[in-house]
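Contributing: when you submit paired examples, paste them exactly as shown. First protein:
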Amino acid sequence: MPELPEVETTRRFLVPALEGRTITAVSIRRLRMVRRQARPGDFADRVIGCRIEQIDRHGKFLLAKLSTDVTWVTHLGMSGSVRLAVAGDPEDPHTNVVIRLDDATECRMVDPRTFGFVAAFLPDEMAAGSLAGLGPDALDDLPTTAVLRARMEGRAVPIKPLLLDQAFLAGLGNIYADEVLFRSGIAPSRRAGSLERDEVKRLRGAIRPILEAGLRHGGTSLDDLAYLLPDGRAGDYLSRLMVYGREDRPCRRCGTPIRRAVLRQRSTFWCPECQA
C-alpha cells in the first residue's frame, strides 16, 4: 500500500505539472472511485473550471486546494498510483480517473483494486470527514518524545498496530512501521504503554530517517509493481529494506533469520535478536 514516502514522492512530481493549471475535463471510469461523494457527479461539477492553487499532503492523503473553496482529495488505497500523460497518449490498464488540464496534461489515477478514491470536498465536509480525525503527520509534524510517550501511556495495544493507527500518527503503513521498529530495536508485539522513555526516544528518532530514506529512493515498489512513480518508473527502496518481506532471510545486521507473523491481521517482519 502506498505510504507516506510514496505519496510525498507523488506530490513532488505533481506540483510543477499541476499547480497553476486549470481543470478542463474529468472522466470517471469507475463510479466506485467517487464513492465518498454524496452524488457521483459532484466531483466533476466541483472541480471543472477550477485552478489548482496548491498541492499538499497529510499522511497518505494528497490534498489539492482549488481556486474555489473546494479541496480535491486523493487517496491511493492499496494499489493506486498517479500517472502524468498528455491527452491522446495510450492509457495504462485500470485507469479509472482522468483529469485533464488546460495545457493538455492529464493526471490519471490507476487503481486495479479500486480501494483508492478521489473526492471534491467543501470546507464543512472536510471538517466532518475522516481527514479531520488524522493524527499529526509523521514527517512534517512529528510529536516530541514526551508527547508520544504520554499518548502511549497505559495502552495495551502492541506498538506495531498503534503505529499503523492513522489517528495516532498519520502516514506510516505496514512497510515503514516494520522498518522503524527494526531501526529502534523494539519488538512489534511490545505493549505500547510498556515502552520506557529511552525506547520512545529511539522510536521517534527512527521515524524521520526511515521516511526520508524512502523518499530519496522514490518509495518502495514491490514485486507486483502496483505502485509506480508518476513517470512510470519503479521506486527502488525495496532492495534497502532491512526486515519487511525478508522472512527466513538473514538479518542484515546480525545474521539471524527474519521472522514473520500476523499481528492484528497485518503481516509483520522483525529480527528476534535485534528486536529482543
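Second protein:
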Amino acid sequence: MVLNKIRRFWSAENRTIIAHTHPDSVISEQFRMIQTNMKFIMSEQNSRTILITSSEDGEGKSTIATNLAVSLAQQKKKVLLIDGNLRKPALHSFFNTSNKIGLTDVLTGRASFSEAIIHTEVWRLDLLTSGVVPFNPVELIGSQRLPELLNKVEQSYDIIIIDSNSILEVTDTKLLASQCDGVILVTQNGKTKLEKAAEAKKVIEFSKANIVGIVLNQ
C-alpha cells in the first residue's frame, strides 16, 4: 500500500522538520495524510513499533521518520523517535542535539533509558539518538537487550518510530525489521530502480517483517 506520494523538499545538508516549523504547509499536510493512513493499518494489525527504511541511502528516510514522528505527536500521540542507524546516524542533527549518549549506550548498559532520552521541543515527542557509532552494530541490534528495550518503552509510548540504514546494505537493518511490528519503505521517484524496490520488499518479507506501506518521494 502506498501511504502517500510526497514532494521532495530537502537535500543531504538540509535537516528540516517542516512539520514543526511550517505546520500549515502543503508538505506538512502530506505527512498528516501518511499518519492518518498509518492509523487505520496499525489499528487493524495492532502495530506500535514502526521501522523506516529504504532500498538505498539518500532517499530521505531520516527526514520522513522525523517529520512523521512530529506529525504523530501533533495528533496527541506520545511518540518515541529512535535512531537505529548505528552506522550513519542523523536524527540528532535534526534536533541540534548531542549524540554522545544514546541507543548504543542503553544496549551496552553504559546508560539507562532515562539517562539517554531527550525530551524535544515538540510536545509529546521524545528522541533516543544512536549514541556513539559502535564497531559491532550487528551484535548490538541482534542482542536480547533490544527487544527488552522495545517491550519496555511500548508501555510508555503510543508509537515508536525507528530510523534505520537502508535494508539492502547492512544486516543490522534486517534484524531491526524482524523486531518491529511494521516497516515503511521509502523510495525516491526517479532514483530508486524498480528492481531495487522489489528486492527490498523481498528482503523485508524474508526477515518475517510486515510492510505496512510505501512512501514515494517525488
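If you have annotations for the second protein, write them as plain sentences, like these:
Residues 9-13 have pLDDT under 50 and may be disordered.
The first strand starts at residue 2 and ends at 6.
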